[in-house]
Amino acid sequence: MPQAFFSRLLRRSPWVLLVALALVLSACLAGNVAAPKAQGGVLDLSAWDLPRQGPLRLAGEWEVRWGQLLTPQEFAASGQRAELAHVPGPWSKTRPGQELFSSTGAATYRLALRRDQGFGGMALHLGGISSAWRLWADGRLVAECGTPGLEAALETVRLASTVVPLGLAGEPQGRNELMLVLQVSNHHFRDGGVLGAPMFGPAEALQEHYGRRAALALCLAGALLIMGVYHVGLFYFRRSGPAPLLFGVYCLLWLGNYVSTDSSDWVVRQLLPRLPGVGLERFGLACLFLSVPVGYAFFRSLYPGEFRRALLHMAAWAGAVLAALALGGPSQWLGHALPLFYLFTALLIVYCFARLLRAWRRGLEGAAFILAGFCAIGLAGLNDMLTDLALIASVPLVAPGMLVFIMSQAFALSWRLSRAFTAVEALSSQLESKNQSLEAEMAERNRLEREVINISEEERRRMSVDLHDGLCQLLTAARLRCAVLTGMPRSAAEKEDLAKLSGLLDRLVDQAYDLSIGLWPLEHEATGPSLADLAQRFSRSSGVPIGLTQQWGCRSCPDGKATQFFRIAQEALSNAVKHAKPTRIELFFCCEPGGQACLRVSDDGVGRAAAKRSKGGLGMGIMVHRARIIGGELRVEDAPGGGTVVSCTAACEVLQEGRPGGAPHNTDAATEGKP
To answer: Rounded to 5, what percent of the chain is helix, strand, coil?
Structure first.
């Protein structure tokens, strides 16, 4: 179900996000569509209901005195004919004879507001003014930001976005005109003027409006910070490709640009109010210039076959040069280079849109989300560049565009994680099923191995019984018959031949009995096969003394492990006698019901390194196999004083059923080999 939902969302995501972008843009642009505009330095507010319709921007034609910083009295007393300047607008477009981004100097603006209901409780919200300003309302100085000056040495730069109460609460209700005078100077930034139209309305409504703007600015800044740090951390911990790192750096660069410009009311100054304004603007421009090549590199890392490497090199060189110019170069050079950068960026936006559209049509992973988000940031970027060049009258839209872009990346990331989790769940289910099948197969194999061992032991028992009851009895009868014949009168030669035959029959009988006992040991003890008999036979046949110590905790061995321990001891003794050249062997067995059963065979021979190994021997493998059958562990180690120690331990899972009182059955025997 989730996979199908995300598949349908993936097919529709470009159109869904584009509709969301359209709604965001319409909300941004529809606020003051029918708001009145100032004409000839006068703005009539009679048709605008401020309490019901809310604050409005004081946009339109303001009176202006270029190159002068005048008080209201000086402005009124000057005999010059006032010119008109459009607000909002940079001096490069509103001041006659000014080049693009080369407007420095000073100016004084004046606007008359007319309203039938009076101006009690009204306020102004000012922001987006470079680089210092001073405001009068009806001849009274109500606010200033920095110190305006006719020269750079006389100007004090300060960037701020603030709500200014006009102090008209006690004015009579019949008052219907308010005169605003605004001094502005700029000697440090690339463009001067009133770049953002002041907002006029009730002080409480403006405070709410300013609070919403600050909250949205902090929200977007936080989103950019979180996405940037998250993707950088994702690259650090899982370096599967450069895409997460590039996107993280891209978000952090946009964060640096956004918090350092009037688009966010210089939100960084709310946290660090002492930051210098000129350095702040230069830092924001440097982040903007570097974000373009980083964004292109991000797209190329996702779809290397769709984006050309040559354009990446061009964007990287342009971004690096302009970033260095923004941080330390003359503002005049930056002003001339900025339109060219905007043109290059606009062409790059068109190119990236075409390549992402092609990637989407080819069905490349995540291309739908990336395309939809890029449409938002691309259109917002074109809008802001044209607005900055004063080619269109609009508001900054990079904030909502960037929000849609990072949301698209979040959707893409969610989709990838959903697919990854679905794949992991499927693999986990398959692995669990295979584990269950493997466990069942291993259990069946262990059962079959135990069955094979039981059948083998039963066959050995049958062969041992057949040898003991058949061949051994016949050989014993033949030996007795020979003894009878020897006692009868015979010649010396016949007696000598019968004596040789009797000795041969004696050895055959002994060998047949040894073979019978080796195939299946006679259970002289109730606990299981006799280790004492095993030690005696090996000591007698090899001439090596074998010491035996046994501690049995049960009268009998209910779980049948004693037989496997016997076979392991048999193989270990055989290996020690054949390869270790020992002078003595110690055999130890201990069993604690409900605890551990332990077998240890140690010798004082030459050790494993010097021992003579037989070619193609299977003894060690057989011992390991028998230990695994009973769930035990076999270890072969060098003894501290020389020689070898073979040990096997296994859990004893039966309850105490030993001798009365639970006392162990001890056997301590040492047999001396006889030649």
So the answer is: 55, 15, 30
